[in-house]
Amino acid sequence: MIIEVAGLGSVLVILVGLRLSPRPARIAAMATAPDRIKRSRNGRAGAIAAAALGVVAVAIAGGVFAGAACGIGAVLHRRVALIRRDRRRRRSIADHYPDFLDLVVLTVHAGCNPLQTFRSLAGAVEPQIDAALADLVQRVDRGARFVEALSALPEHLGPIARSLADSLALADRHGVPLAATLDRLSAEAHSHRRRNADTAARQLPVKLSFPLVTCTLPSFVLLTIVPLMAGTFSSLRSLTR
Question: Does residue 139 surpass a pLDDT of 90?
């Protein structure tokens, strides 16, 4: 009984420790707050320490193999959670990027240059995109050229923003007309989002088949087929007697 309680408590300690680490969505806010960075590092260190203590407790309570299995499970849990968060982050950027380009097009057509556009849009867009704009503006304020600061867009947003950064760089260096290029990029972004939505809609029946096969079908077999077969075998047994 003591071993089971100790093992359960150790697993709870590991799970609580893993949940103490900060989420990637808070990284942008931490960039301008050193005290938050310090608290984040302390929280991550606390999570690692709690997980290590949990693994040691499981090893003491259930043996070396139980501790090793629990440690591997904790590492895999953390890894899977990070992968899922990164996927949600990239999906959120892809969903909001066309709307961001629409705002850029409207602001540029209103007469603002790209830097003024990014300054005016700061705080009015999706948090991940806002972090990229804030980093770009801060680089310019620290003395970097606008063309050099444009690298902040693909660094934060990924390859989806590469075409925008290249177009703005060409416009800044060679005076290429920007309005028509931004209109084309906005149309392409909306088309790409529609294709992603169509792909997700086509994948939905496949995803729905998983709970159907793993939950509904076994329950149907257990509640319908198994009693019927049990009754049939009982009838056959009584006839043989």
Answer: yes
Q: Do the beta carbons of residue 195 and residue 117 sit within 8 Å?
A: no
pLDDT, average across residues 193-199: 90
Write the single-letter amino acid at 16.
Answer: V
Residue type, 228: L
Residues 6+ apart with CB under 8 A from 219: none
Contact predicate 22/44, CB 8 Å: yes
Q: Is the pTM of this model over 0.70?
A: no
pLDDT at 212 over 70: yes
Q: How do residues 149-191 score in pLDDT, each as one tens digit? A: 999 999 999 899 999 999 999 888 887 788 888 999 999 999 9
DSSP per-residue string spanning the chain: -HHHHHHHHHHHHHHHHHHTSPPGGGHHHHTT-HHHHHHHHHHHHHHHHHHHHHHHHHHHHH-HHHHHHHHHHHHHHHHHHHHHHHHHHHHHHHHHHHHHHHHHHHHHHTT--HHHHHHHHTTSS-HHHHHHHHHHHHHHHTT--HHHHTTHHHHHH-GGGHHHHHHHHHHHHH----HHHHHHHHHHHHHHHHHHHHHHHHHHHHHHHHHIIIIIHHHHIIIIIHHHHHHHHHHHHHHH-
